[in-house]
């Protein structure tokens, strides 16, 4: 059982991390080229109008005042309004629409990686230096080496163009209209009780999830193999086998729990990589998540959207790391001490 004190300490440690991220985001955007006032007013706007926009935004104030105001807005989740992406729309509303799309994609990709990576890693460790081990390692190395921007179009060509069994883009077929309740398309179709819509959403998400899951599967299986090999050589594992306990029970009951700790670390770190990889995946499969939102905001110099999106990425990453720390203490209570 995880103590409340342990969780509270980890939550307090998140505060300086988020403060540092907010400071870096503010500094980078203010040092980057471009003028937000010009981006809002337009290149053909008069200088007087540009100056008026700059005054309304408070860009003429000293930098420290802008910084304090920015921190206050972040603390109250007030990210302002979009300049270009959806002019005049609150950034928080834009993020609320786009964020579930990316989270759904990242979570499904992570689950796919775990579903195949963990069994393959355990099998490879138990069958060390056999043909099974060699084939698994070759597959894992291939998965790690294949970039998303290459595997995505290849899978589209194979399953969509040549075989014609899966769609190439989007999250659901154009014939289906589902009200956004949670923002997760699979959940919303189930809540609506629309089975054909669920099948359509599942088919649309299958290719992007596979693209994300291939890399996750490869990395997790490699880490699981290395960790499991180290664990099965420990004295307590030999003692359990010497007492007559079966090999499968010894591996799954005693070995897996301890071998899983380093894998948890990789899972937490790779979730951030999944969010970054979702940028490429969303672009390839034309899924309008927070990844494509960030790219568009950078290209159009929509500073409030860029700031809010980067901060959301940071918050998600820190929350995942908090979950990893809590999982550590569940698997091995000594870590909490």
Explain what this protein looks like in three dimensions:
Helix content is 76%, strand content 0%. The relative contact order is 0.14. The protein is globular and about 85 Å long. The model has no long low-confidence stretch (mean pLDDT 80). The two termini are 13 Å apart. The protein is built from 13 helices and no strands. It is an all-alpha fold. The longest helix is centred in the middle third of the chain and has 38 residues, at 195-232.
Question: In percent, how much strand structure appears in the residues?
Answer: under 5%
Structural class: mainly alpha
Q: Tell me, rounded to a whole number, the average pLDDT.
A: 80
Based on Cα principal axes, name the global outline: globular
Helices and strands, in N-to-C order? HHHHHHHHHHHHH
How large, in whole angstroms, is the Cα Rg? 24 Å
Q: What's the main sheet like?
A: none
Low-pLDDT runs of 5+ residues are: none
Distance between the ends:
13 Å
Number of strands: 0
